Amino acid sequence: MKYIKNKLIQIMSLLVAAALFTTGCNKGFLDVNADPNRVTGDNITPELIFPQAANAVGSRQAGGVFIHHWVGYFSNPGDYAPSKDEITYNFNTSFGDGYFTGGYDVLFDLYQVKVKALAKGDTVLSAASMILAARIWQDLTDVFGDIPYSQAFNNDQYLQPVYDKSTDIYASLQKSLDTAILYMGKTAKSTFATVDDVNSGNKTKWIKFANTLKLRLLIRQSQVSGFSATAEAAKIVANGGVLHTGETVSVNPGYSNDANKQSPFYGNYGLSPTGSDASATFRANAYIVNILKANNDGRLAYFFLNPSGGGSSPAGAIYGLAAPASNPIGTALSKPGSGLAGSAAQRQWIFTSFESMFLEAEAIARGWLPGTAQTAYQNAVTESFLWLGVPNAAAAATAYYTTATSAMWANAGTTAASQAKFISYQKYISNTGVNPLESWCDIRRLNMLTDMSYISADPSKISSVLPSRLLYPQSEYTTNSANVNALGVINQFSSKLFWQP
To answer: What would the pLDDT profile of 262-318 be if each residue is shown by its tens digit?
Structure first.
């Protein structure tokens, strides 16, 4: 498969380059003395692979521009032409190629960490890689549906791995996370805290992260007929619960304001090391700006800056608007604010504390976890204000959820279904610029956005609802054709994921 071959080529290139570099020092091919400077598969250790793999997981959370556009967070300004296949939803098999292969590149590295760490008896480092991998596996499944999973990376046996059913992948991820939690409970190697650029060796936080991912798997299946979360929810409670206040999972291998060293989100959408605009095309979407303004939301200025060309408040573009009508130019629109793009050295989020708390609030509303749904919901909102750095966050959050009509618990309804929609809508607002994939999933799962003006304004769009999925990439039809074609004809709207109603 292309994504496996690419990664293997990268590793082989590294080995060949290292071999050529050290050739001048060789004493002869019969020399039995090992060269400690020679790069081999044996000395590419899991401790060397893990930091860059963790950074790559964070980098994926700083991407997904098309999803930011689709769900109403960002848009192109009027002085840049939008992608026609994106704004019409009329895309082909090449559209998702990078998202698919990039995910497998990261998963390959995490797989290598797991295998190599277990071979050394390092269950804790292996567990960390398994937990991060579970995040990426679910993301890919939530975008493409059935994907290569059980045979992926077993290159000696399966050069063309089969596509596993997404239901089976979900079930397997629950078991994998259970195993990771068990592994994480073992004694860590002395090097773990240094290697762990994510949680600095905090095993309790890793376990909470695993529990949060387990809960996200459950929440995604909330609309599946006959689904029961009872057994898995009990495990989450027994193993210490999910991420809470101040427990955002993030990575920082040493970001700085230098070329190719900036924190990923800031480097993509903030300023370059020389102080120029890192992205001239990533501007606020009028949809979310209008929601924030209508609710007098204290987070507005932390999500979005005022336009650099002048203006007393953030301004957004209408997604999909094109000639003869047009959006304002980039300088008249807002870039990401300090809550999102604060500095070149900021930690890159992998899973935020507030998203975890919103998931918990929905689970409580559904009766899956103990607690009071209103309290859990309000705590999640407060955590969003704290996470963004809003001054006097607790008071500002209280003012928001006691005065904004859409945020008042009194308007959440009395049924689990109505409260779940209410909570997911507020999670959608809190995830502005942070995790658009979660919002796309919630839109597909609960359809909680009653105002549909986030849909592209392009008159040639082929649908008035968002796609259910991406198409399998052309690289799969080229290198793994038998297995991908066995799935039949895939349509981006009618071929729904198993958890969609």
So the answer is: 999 999 999 999 999 999 999 999 999 999 999 999 999 999 999 999 999 999 999
One-letter identity of residue 392: N
120 within domain boundaries: yes
Backbone angles phi, psi at 235, to 5 degrees: -65, -40
Burial class (CB in 10 A: 0-12, 13-18, 19+), 123: buried
Q: What are phi and psi for residue 316, nearest 5 degrees?
A: -125, 165
Does residue 211 belong to any structural domain of this protein?
Answer: yes
- For the stretch 63-121, pLDDT in tens is 999 999 999 999 999 999 899 999 999 999 999 999 999 999 999 999 999 999 999 99
What's the pTM? 0.93
HSE (side-chain half, CA atoms, 13 Å) at 241? 14
- Number of domains making up the chain: 1
Buried residues in 439-452 as b, exposed as e (16+ CB within 10 A): bbbbbbbbebbeee
Residue 255 lies in a domain: no
The tokens describing 45, both together, are 């250790």
Q: Which residues contact 259 (CB under 8 A, 6 or more apart)?
A: 273
CATH number, domain containing residue 184? 1.25.40.390
Helices (H), 249-323: 264-269, 286-294, 300-303
Which three-class secondary structure state does DSSP give residue 350? Answer: strand
Query: Which ranges of 185-284 would DSSP assign to H, the alpha helix?
Result: 192-195, 203-220, 230-238, 264-269
C-alpha 395/C-alpha 37 separation (Å) is 58
Which domain covers residue 100, as residue numbers?
1-21+37-227+236-241+468-496
Q: Within a domain: residue 429? A: no
From the CB of residue 429, how many other CB atoms can be counted at a distance below 10 Å? 21
Between CA 319 and CA 327 the distance in angstroms is 9
- Burial class of residue 12, CB neighbours in 10 A (0-12, 13-18, 19+): exposed
| Closest C-alpha to 70, from 457, 378, 481 | 457
